[in-house]
Amino acid sequence: MNHRRYYIAATLALLFLNRAALAQNTTTGEQQLSLTDVWEKAVANNKQLHIKQLQVQTAQEEVKDAKAERLPEINVGAEYARVSNMPVFENGLFGTPSQFPVLHSTYGGDADAYLNIYNGGRTNLNIAQKKTLANVQQIRMAQTTSQVKLQAAMLYLQLQKSIVFRQLLLSDIAFQEKQLQKIEQLRKNGVVLKSDVLRAQLQLSKQKLSLNTIDNDIAIANQQLDVTMGEPDDIRIKPDTAVAVDTAGLKSYNDYLSDAYQHAFAGKISEGETQLRELQLKSAKGKNMPKVGLFANYKLSYPQIMFYPYSPYFYGLGLAGVRATFSISGLYINRHKIKVAELELKTQETEHSDVQDNIRLSVNNAYLRLQEARHKVEVARTNVKQARENSRIVNNTYFNQTSLITDLLDANNALLQTRFELAAAQIAVQAQYFQLQNAIGNL
C-alpha cells in the first residue's frame, strides 16, 4: 500500500513539473513571428504611441469644448442684505437729520441668459482651429506609428540577416571540416605538406570565431526587438528567413512622388499648420466686427425699493432683447495682431514649400536606393554562380596537385563572401522598400 501511494505521489509530482516546464517554455521559449506580428506587438506596446493617443483624445475634447461655446450662457444668483437707516439731512449736512423709515432686510434672486448670434465668426473659426489641431494630432500619431513600424522592420531584417549569415556559415564550416579531413588524408599519404593542414585548420578556426560573432549579433538584435515589442528579453524570436517583399511591381518615381505629396506625414502636418495660420488670421480680423446676441434676465426681489413709490412686497422685473456692441478701440489695437497673423501665415507658407522640397528629396533618395539594391541582388546572384564554379575548379585542381592551398582557401572565402553579399542585398531590398513606403506615408 505504501509503495502504491509513493508511486501515485511521484507520478503527480512529475506531471506538475512537466506542466510547469511546458508553461515556462511557452512564455520564455522561441516564438516564430512574421513581420506583421512584430508590427502589431510594437504598435500595441510603444509608449510614445500611447502618449500620442492621449494627445488625440485631448484634442477631440477641445473640439467639443469649442462647440459648447455656441450654447447660451445662463447664470443664476441670489442675495440677502441688511439695509441701514437712511438719514435725511433736511437742515443741511451739519444739521440733525431725520430718520426715514426703511425695511432693513432685502432678498433677491435673478437669472440672465445670453445667446451669441454673431461675433465676427470667431466661434466657428475657433471650432475650425480645434478641428485642424485634432487632425494634425491624428497625423502625428500615424507618423509615430509609421516610425515605430520602420524601426521594428529594420531590427527584424537585421535579425533575419544574421540568422541567414549563421546558416551560411554553418554550411561552410561543415564543408571545410570535410575538406580538412581530405587534406589530412593527403598529408598522411605524403601528397601535401603539413603547412597545408595548418592553414586549413586556421581558416576553419577563423570561421568558428566568426560564428561566435554572428551569435552575439543575433542575441543583440533579438533583445532590441524584444524591447521594441514590449516583450521580456529572454523571448527568442524566429523570423521568416524567406524574402517577404515582392518588388517586381514597383511604380515609377513620378507615381511615388505623387503619392508622397498626397500622403506623406510631414506634408500633411505642414498643410494642417498652414490652414491653422489662415484661421488665426481670420480670427484676428474678426475682432474688428460687431457682436450681436440675444439676452434676457429676470429678477425677483423684496422689498420694492427700485421705483418710487416703494412698497413692502415682492416684485419681479424682466428684460429681453437684442444686444449689439462694437469695439472702436479694436480698430487700432487689433491692427498689429492682424499684421502678426499675416506674417506668421507667410512664414508657414514658406516652411510648407520647404517641407515639399524635403519630401521630394526623400522619395528620390529612397527610390534610387531601392533600384540600386535590386541591381545589387542581380549582380550578387551572378557573382555567386561565378564563385561557385571557381571554387569547384580550384577544388579539383588542388586535389589533383595543380594548385596551391592558398588558391583553395581563397576560392572558399570568395564563395562564402558572395553568398553573404547576396543575402545582404536581398535584405537591403526589403529595407529600402520599407524606407520608400515610409517616405510616401504608406507604411
UniProtKB/TrEMBL annotation:
**In which compartments does the protein localize?**
Cell outer membrane
GO cellular component term of the entry, any: cell outer membrane
Does this UniProt record's set of keywords contain Ion transport? no
Give the signal peptide as a residue range, or say none if absent.
1-23
Q: InterPro entries recorded for this chain?
A: OMP_efflux, TolC-like
Q: Which organism is it from?
A: Mucilaginibacter conchicola
- Record's SUPFAM superfamilies? Outer membrane efflux proteins (OEP) (SSF56954)
The similarity annotation says: Belongs to the outer membrane factor (OMF) (TC 1.B.17) family.
Q: Which Pfam families match?
A: OEP (PF02321)
Keywords tagged on the record: Cell outer membrane, Coiled coil, Membrane, Signal, Transmembrane, Transmembrane beta strand, Transport
Q: Which residue spans adopt a coiled-coil conformation according to this UniProt entry? A: 338-390
Query: Which PANTHER family does the protein's record reference?
Result: OUTER MEMBRANE PROTEIN TOLC (PTHR30026), TO APRF-PUTATIVE OUTER MEMBRANE EFFLUX PROTEIN OR SECRETED ALKALINE PHOSPHATASE-RELATED (PTHR30026:SF23)
GO MF, one example: porin activity
**Protein name stated in the entry:** TolC family protein
